[in-house]
Amino acid sequence: MSLNQKIDHFSGKRIWIIGASSGIGHATAHAFLKLGAKVALSSRRLDSLKEIQSHFSPESSLVISCDVLNESSLKDAYGTIKNAWGELDLLLYVAGVYEPLRADEFDLDKAKNIIATNVIGPMSACSVVLPDLIRQKHGGIGIVSSVAGYSGLPKALAYGPSKAAMINFCENLYYDLAPLGVNVYMINPGFVATEATAKNDFHMPALITSDAAAKHIIDGMMAGDFDIHFPRQFSLFLKFLRILPYPIYFFLLKKFVKI
Ligand SMILES: NC(=O)c1ccc[n+]([C@@H]2O[C@H](COP(=O)([O-])OP(=O)(O)OC[C@H]3O[C@@H](n4cnc5c(N)ncnc54)[C@H](OP(=O)(O)O)[C@@H]3O)[C@@H](O)[C@H]2O)c1
Question: DSSP label at 140?
Fold first, then answer.
């Protein structure tokens, strides 16, 4: 059963991607532009955003510098989009930071940056667009969280909690927005080869490309899915692990995760 309204095309849809300069956001921006959407490309690295823009007709995209740690920068960016396009059909928040952290090397400054970017950032972005989406009674919000938010995993002492918070946030948003006709997409990728995961010094099971991740995201939205998780074999396995009793869960984690 689809929890959101299905989407049969993205042609002419006005989409704001925050975190479009690399990885999953970059690939998804390309994919949406290829489908004829109008995409506002945001993040801090303008060169990379302009590089995406250069592949498509100039009127199909906007390049808007934005730092998610700065609320007024998000408000200004949204103001620019509204001036140019009037309305927004989809906010896709992809921006995020990942730092491996364990208890014996816990760094509070790194943890604060992760929470600010991965939790306060999407909440700030939503606070900027929510009043209009609620008034419009159409459109949607997609937030890229992670399967790392399903349950506690090694080396994710701040990243894991940040993603768990976003899963809960999306569930809350869905409850409030679905009756108003606004779609909510909770997007939980497994391992995707990007700048963020290039620093991992361990084997990443079921690793996929950012282009494959973009396809999963767009296919999930078109199908009207709320819970967009991929690659399926890996994400379903982690969903299964989290419902196990803790003694079994921690036993399996210790046995199979050697990091
Ligand atoms: N790769 C994976 O295996 C994986 C798995 C599950 C979930 N995810 C999630 O997917 C999302 C994208 O990750 P990725 O792997 O594609 O990483 P990435 O290549 O490092 O991209 C991260 C993006 O976030 C933006 N960003 C970071 N801090 C920002 C800030 N303060 N203001 C504005 N933009 C900011 C970056 O842009 P600028 O640096 O230009 O600002 C960049 O566009 C993240 O939320 C990540 O947690 C990734």
Answer: E
